[in-house]
Each structure stands twice: as C-alpha cells, then as structure tokens.
Design a protein that fits this description.
The complex is a heterodimer of chains A (217) and B (343).
Chain A lengths: L6 H17 L2 H13 L4 H20 L5 H24 L7 E6 L7 H12 L3 E4 L6 H10 L4 E5 L7 H12 L5 E5 L5 H7 L3 E2 L3 H12 L1
Parallel strand pairs in A: 1-2, 1-3, 3-4, 4-5
Helix pairs in contact in A: 1-2, 1-3, 1-4, 2-4, 3-4, 3-9, 4-5, 5-9, 6-7
Chain B lengths: L3 H7 L3 E2 L3 H5 L5 H4 L3 H14 L4 E2 L7 H9 L26 H14 L5 E7 L1 H8 L4 H8 L8 H27 L3 E5 L10 H6 L2 H21 L2 E6 L5 H9 L4 E4 L5 H4 L8 E6 L11 H18 L3 E5 L10 H12 L5
Parallel strand pairs in B: 1-8, 2-3, 3-4, 4-5, 5-6, 6-7, 7-8
Helix pairs in contact in B: 4-6, 5-9, 6-9, 7-9, 8-11, 9-11, 14-15
Classes of the chains: A alpha/beta (217), B alpha/beta (343).
Chain lengths: 217, 343
Amino acid sequence: MRTVKAPNDMSEILNTLTESIKAGKRKDAKAATEQALSENIDPQQILAALTMGMDDVGRRFKANEIFVPEVLVAARSMKSSMELLEPVLAESGYTPDHTVIIGTVEGDLHDIGKNLVAMMLKGANFSVVDLGTNVGAQAFVEAAQTHKASLIGLSALLTTTMTAMREAVALFREQGLAAKVMIGGAPITEQFAQDIGADGYATDAASSVDLARSLVA
Amino acid sequence: MDNLYLKLASKGHRAPIATDLVLHERPDPEAVLLDGGRLGEVVIETADRFGTPLAIPLMDLRVEKEALLSAMGIAAASIPGYHFEEPPPPIDDVAPTPRMEATCEGIARVADVPALLPMGMCIGPFSLMTKLVSDPITPVYMAGTGATAEEDEDVDTLEKCLQLGLPLILQYIEAQVDAGARAMIVCEPAANMVYFSPNQLAESFGIFDRYVMDGLRQIRDLLARRGVDFILHDCGELTDGMVRRFGELHPAMLSLGSSRVLWEDAALLPKDVVLYGNLPSKRFFAKDLSTAQVEAAACDLLGRMQAADHPFVLGSECDILSVSGSEAEITSKIEAFLHAKNS
C-alpha cells in the first residue's frame, strides 16, 4: 500500500534536497532524491525543489557571490538527482514546457560557456538538447524541427567564429523556424545580436536563464 | 638601463599583438603556417608595420595539444575536439610537428634582423591541461576541497594531463630558444576566475600554486638558465592574489586582459615588472566600440599608468585576430592607440 509522507517530513526532505544543490553536495543530493522517491513524494515537487536550488545558484552567480566552479558543482549535483528523477517524471507523463537547442557554432570548439548555459537552463526546467561544439547551421535547423524547440542558443568564443552566428540566424529565418534565437559568448555584444537579427543576447549564463524565460513567456 | 622592456616603457612604447592580422593578408595563411621562412617574414612585417622591435610570433595555443596527441597516435581530424576521459598514459617522446618546426624556422629568420627581438611563444601547462579534458573546472574545484587523485578519477586525469604537458612545453621552449628566441611569451589564459573560484582561493591559494604556479616556476627557471626573457600573458579574469603571484615569478613583462585595472595592479607588482597590453582588443572588430573610444581609453590608461609611476607598454589585451570583413575596423583601432596622445 502506498503511504503518503506527512507534509513536515516531506518539506524537510525537499529542503535538504534544495540545500544540497545549493551547496553542490552531489552525494547528499542523490541521497535526498532517493529518499524523496522512496517516500512517494510527487516527482514534480521534487523537481521544483531542484529548480529552487539552481535558481538560488543562478541568483548568487549573477550577484558575484559564487563563481563558475561552484555553479558547475551545483549543476553536477542536479544532474545526479535528475538521473534518478527523469525516468519517474517520464513515467508520469511529465515533460518540460520548452525545449532549447544549444551549441557552439561552426568552427568553434569552445564549450565552457555553452555548457554552463545548458546546465543553468536545465536547472530552470528547460529541456535542453546540447549539440556540442563546431555545429553547422543546418544541424541546428534539423534539431529545432525534430524537437519542436522554442529556443535556439548559439555560443561562440572567438571573434573569428562569431561570424558563423550571422549565417546561422539567416538560415533559421530563411527556413521559417518558429524558435527564438539567443546568442552569447565573450566577443558578443548587444549591437552584434541586433545586427544579425537574433532575438536576444545574454552576457552570462545566469542572465541566459532570465533571457530564455522572457523569450518564451 | 639594459632591460629592453624598461627602456621601451620609459620611451612610451606601444605595440599590438597583431601577427594574425598580417598573416591573414596572405592568400594562403594555412600554407604560411607550415613554411618557416614565410612565417618569419610575416612576423618581421608585423613588427615593421607597427613600429616595434618586439617580433611577436603568432599566438596559436593549439600547437602543443596537436603535438602531444599526434605523438599518442590520435588521428589529426580528431585532435581539436579530443579529450581524455581517463588518466592518459605517460609518453616518452613527442616529436616536433611541422607547425612547431616552422615556428622555430620563423624565429631563426627573425633572428637575422638585428633590429628585432626574436620572441617565442608557448602555452602554459595549466592552459594546455584544460584543452585535454572535457571538464577541467570541476576537478580543479574538487582538488581544492582536498580531493586527491587516489580518491577522484577526474582529479587523477587532470593531474596526469598536467604531468604529460609540462615536459612537452619545456621541450618546445628549448627548441625555440635553440632557434634564436631571446624572449618567451608564456600564455596561461586559463589560470583565471572561471577555473579557480575566488571563494576557494580566499581560503587557500594551495590549488592555484600547485596547478598553475609550479609549472610556471619550472618554465621561468629554464628560461633563466638559457638567458631568455620571461614574458607572461594571461588575459583571463584574475583576482588580485593571482596577479600578485604572477609578480612573484618576476617576469620581464606581464601582459594582462582588459578586465584588470592596471594602475591598481601596479601596486601588486615589483617595480621592474613591466605591465603590457590591456586595451580591449577582443572587441576591436565591433563598431559599437568606436575608434575615438579606443583612443580615449589609450590616453586615459597612459595617463593613469604614468601617475602610478609603473613601467608600462600600451598594447592589446590579447592576440588581435583577423575577422573577415572587419579588417579595416580593427586596423583603425590599432592605429588609434598607437598614435593616441599621452594625456
């Protein structure tokens, strides 16, 4: 017989989970997720606890209270929890509202910024399809169509490769993709984003979450 | 005063790192990279065009990774995106690649020009390691919390990659010095706040000392033994503690990125470490950074460095890459800072 956890016990487990994510304690996050699942807590509530942890990480990152390594360690904890949670969510028929296709543009092999954005977006409960680095424009188009994406995120680190963004955005427009396009990377400026017809530009990974949320709102 | 860099600083010298711009004016830049004589000519032309005795070579930080992985039998096409997923085995001998040989031949060509200082270039050991593993940041952080290579395979992989890279870098430096380099620009841009959390460093610089400084000390010592000037370049976002530690290495010149406030950094460094660079050259391609703004920034920086009474050579924060279609825009900004009036 399925027993439902008392609210106080439940909130204690979820709070532990949120705090484990915030502190980047992977083992604790995994243990709290296991406990939450074994106690039959609603998987969407577990997901909300994870998202709350990552939202706090993003807020502190934006405020320069924590830095990239702490974000990555928190995201790694989130990933461990999600590996346990995703099959349960899928079983319950839950899917995130929005899918983002993300990748570093053709000719560019840098991925730290792109990975950070992907992790932050996952933490904000977007479904993220990461195409990796050196991704041609056509591959973004195909992935966006296949996954019915709401957003496409393009990353570039080099001044020499960011020009590939212009070609990619032009192709997306030519193909009539419904997905909004957000771009980012060290050399990118707001002006450049406007010039190439992107829908938005984020200065850092935490801001990319705000941007993504605003673009799909 | 026999220190060239101090002498240049005292004369208000300015110089961009702009070899890539000139290289890409050639119809066949990829071929030039493999032709030492022509590569040397590009370096000479760059120095001549921008009026500097500093024969700065191309800043291409992919060369060492290519050599290392070629020696390990990784297919050329896979090398750029290749990462070790587990600790790599040690390797006895890394043969110089055609790119390395051409670079050395280029230095030898430059050494034939008496008015120029032939300079070599290499990646720093930490930055090379970051190119060899898919996620270097997390294991650096975990090692900073005390995780050891025995306890954590990712830390083990990272440390093995560091051990793998350093001998190759030392070997490449020796080859460039043998070819005639009298100064070596060691590029360690990954030693920055992305890879090292300032929160962690506030508690201890141990992990930075171990992963960054130990390798740089070995390079500095080698250069000192060979009588070659040590120039350290790091355009990443740095903490004051990082800058102070770089100063302790006592490079002849320290090249920093535009995120630093150089006149404040002056207080962190020995008086004879010449500061170099700092103008936001990664954005020179962009029209929303105007030529007038670059000129104003150059004037301001020159004035403030003069007030700080610290030796300084105005320049670019990093290699000024050629961006197709934006060459004139970029060149106008180089000209702007080369000719900006000292306020």
